[in-house]
Amino acid sequence: MYYFKNTSLSSHMSKILSATMLDLCLKGYLTFETVEGKKDQIKVILKQTEDINLPEDEKTIFSLFQQIANKQTNSFTMKEFENYARNHPSIVLGKINKIEEQAKNLQQEKGNYDKKQIETYQKWILKGVGYLFLGIFSIVFMQILVIPAIVASIYSFKLSGRYNQLTKKRSR
Question: What share of the chain is helix, strand, coil (3-state, %, to 5)?
Answer without folding.
Answer: 70, 10, 20
